[in-house]
Specification:
This protein is globular. It is an alpha/beta fold. It is built from 14 helices and nine strands. Helix 12 (234-250) packs antiparallel against helix 13 (256-270). The chain has helices at residues 12-21, 33-43, 51-55, 68-75, 81-84, 99-111, 124-129, 141-151, 166-194, 199-206, 214-225, 234-250, 256-270, 281-288, and strands at 2-6, 25-29, 46-47, 60-63, 90-93, 115-118, 121-122, 133-137, 155-160. The protein has two domains: 2-163, Rossmann fold; 169-288, N-(1-d-carboxylethyl)-l-norvaline Dehydrogenase, domain 2. Strands 3-2-1-4-5-6 form a six-stranded parallel sheet.
Length: 295
């Protein structure tokens, strides 16, 4: 299949690479041309000067960029994907963006005889590199079925969850759950430290029981070591939680834990940790609860 891939960040770079390695004819676009050139050096394929050029003649265009405005900038306008994609083509947006943007772009795509699927991912950089992402999809079932095998090249679980916007809403559920788990893990580890326990040993025990989570298994060692230069950044999590809280407000739903964790991440940003991994909630716990002193 001739495929365009737009956005070569820590996620998009390996995702596009998996498609090329699988034998698809991939053309990439990135706002930083040097990164696109580096991708071509690593995987082959071609680089284009605009999203429209990358999508020219393609039947599928995937994108993985930063936020709603970034999506609009590469999809719409004279140099956007919609202008280049062949009639009947499918756009798959892997960006974590708003549900209302997904609905709007799906409606615009239909007017152009195109399909738009919102398909945010979970699994982080490691999941992208290992081709083991979870992909939550909203949109037309026929369009989904036409590209699901392609998405499975880098998706361990690829699931259609409903009409346009459903993928983004599912990703919001994902972020709500992760935020709560990480705050609980940060509090538990800090409690363990101040209680004088061997925190690593504690986690090795409780991770075999009901407290186990992906975050616990994959992040406790780096948290205890104070290493946060990896994974999903706090700045991006705050962007996501902001969309969650906005959507919840529209539903008349209060999310007290999510709101609390969002405020904790704001404190991490104030500590200079905007680009730290989301597990840096532990660094905040250490800052607000200094080591106990005997008196």
């Amino acid at each position: 299949m001739k495929i365009a891939f737009i956005g070569l960040g820590v996620m998009g770079f390996p995702m596009a690479g998996h498609l090329q390695a699988e034998g698809h004819d991939v053309t990439v676009f990135n706002r930083s041309p040097d990164k696109a050139a580096r991708w071509v050096e690593c995987f082959g394929g071609q680089a284009a000067a605009s999203p429209r050029e990358a999508a020219a003649g393609a039947s599928l265009a995937c994108l993985c960029v930063g936020n709603d405005d970034d999506v609009r900038s590469v999809v719409l306008g004279e140099e956007g994907i919609f202008r280049g994609l062949a009639s009947g083509g499918v756009v798959v947006d892997h960006t974590t963006a708003s549900a209302h943007l997904a609905r709007d772009l799906a409606a615009r795509a239909e007017e152009l005889d195109l399909d738009f699927l919102d398909a945010p991912v979970s699994g982080g950089q490691a999941g992208a590199e290992n081709g083991a992402l979870t992909i939550m999809v909203g949109g037309d079932e026929v369009a989904f079925n036409s590209v699901s095998d392609v998405l499975a090249v880098y998706g361990r679980c690829v699931r259609l969850l409903g009409p346009p916007g459903s993928g983004q809403l599912a990703k919001m559920v994902n972020q709500v759950c992760i935020a709560g788990i990480l705050q609980g893990l940060a509090e538990g580890l800090r409690f363990s430290e101040l209680a004088g326990l061997d925190s690593a040993a504690v986690v090795e025990v409780i991770s075999q029981g009901a407290a186990q989570s992906w975050q616990m298994v994959n992040r406790y060692e780096t948290m205890l070591a104070g290493h946060y230069d990896h994974g999903f950044a706090v700045d991006w999590m705050r962007k996501d939680l902001g969309m969650v809280l906005e959507e919840a407000g529209a539903l008349g739903l209060e999310l007290p834990v999510t709101r609390l964790v969002d405020s904790c991440y704001a404190e991490v940003q104030a500590m200079g940790g905007g680009r730290w991994d989301t597990s840096s909630l532990f660094a905040r716990m250490q800052a607000v609860s200094p080591d106990s002193q005997e008196t």
